[in-house]
Amino acid sequence: MMARVHQKSFENCARRRILICAQSNADVDELVSRISSPGLYGSNGKMYKPYLVQVGNAKTVHQNSLPFFIDTLVGQRISEDRMPSKDGKNDLRVDSSALLQSNMEKLIDYIRFYETKCANLRAGHPVIMLTEQYRMHPEICKFPSSHFYDNKLLNGSQMSSKSTPCHQTEGLGPYAFYDIVDGREAHEETLVQCRFVMNAKLMLRLKY
């Protein structure tokens, strides 16, 4: 889940693009909402509306973000390219060929870009694997190490310090799974984020 923002270039300035990534589609929707509503301040101090392109899972994109979703923008562009010219001349065969050629050129550019990025993996160069991790509790690290890293994933020197007294309590270990039978997702049209009321109540009961 991610959104791309690029600002129209000011005079004598090159066009700039900013890539924004978030941990979930809901977070991306929230960013799009905040950026698109008021706008942003440019280097000249004036407010402007940036051109937004959002990518991600189409099934989970919020309806307010659909105008900025890449599928929507591509559909609009294709529709505009298919519109007849003002003088009434419209050769569909020529237009279709030109559109296909343009799309193919863009696709080739994308392929070449990703081939360049992945060249170190596909050109026979050795892959350097980072085997020491400093983020997960050792108990949490066991699963990815055994299932994805052939038991080669090691814990950093201070990972044991991540344990806290509450980990000794049943149900409050480094990780736990709770089956919330009555849990339901609540969502309001005016809000981008979802709410899980029963989940929150369970967390409060565990805490207090």
Helix content: 25-40%
Count the beta strands.
7
Number of separate helices: 6
Overall spatial form: extended
| Secondary-structure element pattern, one letter each | EEHEEEHHHEHEH
End-to-end Cα distance? 35 Å
Quaternary status: single chain
Q: Give the averaged pLDDT, no decimals.
A: 73
Return Rg in Å.
25 Å
Q: Strand fraction band?
A: 5-15%
Count of structural domains: 3
Spatially, the strands of the biggest sheet line up as 2-1-5
**Could you say which structural class the secondary elements and strand pairing correspond to?**
alpha+beta
Low-confidence stretches: 1-14
**Sheet with the most strands?**
3 strands, antiparallel
Protein name: DNA2/NAM7 helicase-like C-terminal domain-containing protein
Domain DNA2/NAM7 helicase-like C-terminal: 124-190
Domain DNA2/NAM7 helicase helicase: 10-93
Pfam family, one: AAA_12
How would you characterize the overall build of this protein?
The protein is α+β, with helices and mostly antiparallel strands and 208 residues long. It has 3 domains: 84 residues, no CATH class; 46 residues, no CATH class; 31 residues, no CATH class. It has 6 helices and 7 strands. The strands form 3 sheets. It has a 3-stranded antiparallel β-sheet. It is extended, with a radius of gyration of 25 Å.
